[in-house]
Amino acid sequence: MDKISEINELIKTYNKNGIISSKDISDGRHTFRELYIQRLIMFCTICNSYPTLSWKSRKHFDEEHDPMYNGDFIAGINTPEGVASYHIKLEYWDLFDIPEIERAPKYDNYTPDDVMNRILSLSKLPK
């Protein structure tokens, strides 16, 4: 096991056992907590800027076999390249001034790179 894998395993173990919170780990400039909040605000701004393409839901597409994470909802946007979405804590629900739908679209196995490319594809839309 390489050093990075060892460090990541220690972080996961310490986080799981309540010794540390991975959200407080920093690169010297930002903590994970700060970066996740920044991502939340940026995604919220994108969704609110495209309300006819965006949605939020308290349920996954197949809630019976894939229940929503406790205390979360899913917000998404239908881009020219496909859906981009994130799970978000319910405390931020009201920040997303977009339509609520009964169930999120079916997950198409997109990756984090796909999400970035899909969000970038919004720049292809007419201004």
Task: List how many beta strands DSSP finds.
Answer: 3
| Helical content class | 25-40%
Order of helices and strands: HHEEEH
Mean pLDDT: 92
The strand line-up of the biggest sheet is: 1-2-3
Number of helices: 3
Most strands sheet: 3 strands, antiparallel
Our measurement of the CA-to-CA distance between the termini, rounded to an integer number of angstroms, reads 49 Å
General form: globular
Query: Radius of gyration, Cα only, in angstroms?
Result: 17 Å
Spans where pLDDT lies below 50 across 5 or more residues: none
Strand percentage, roughly? 15-25%
Class of secondary structure makeup: alpha+beta
Describe what you observe in this structure.
- There is one protein chain.
- The chain is globular.
- Strands 1-2-3 form a 3-stranded antiparallel beta sheet.
- The protein contains 3 helices and 3 strands.
- By secondary structure, the protein is of the alpha+beta class.
- The mean pLDDT is 92.
- The N and C termini lie far apart (49 Å).
- A hairpin with a 2-residue loop joins strand 2 (72-79) and strand 3.
List the helices and strands and how they pair.
Elements: H1 3-16, H2 32-49, E1 54-57, E2 72-79, E3 82-89, H3 112-120
Antiparallel strand pairs: 1-2, 2-3
Task: Looking at this protein, list some descriptive labels.
127 residues
Write a concise synopsis of the structure shown.
The chain has 127 residues and is α+β, with helices and mostly antiparallel strands. The protein has three helices and three strands; from the N terminus they run H-H-E-E-E-H.
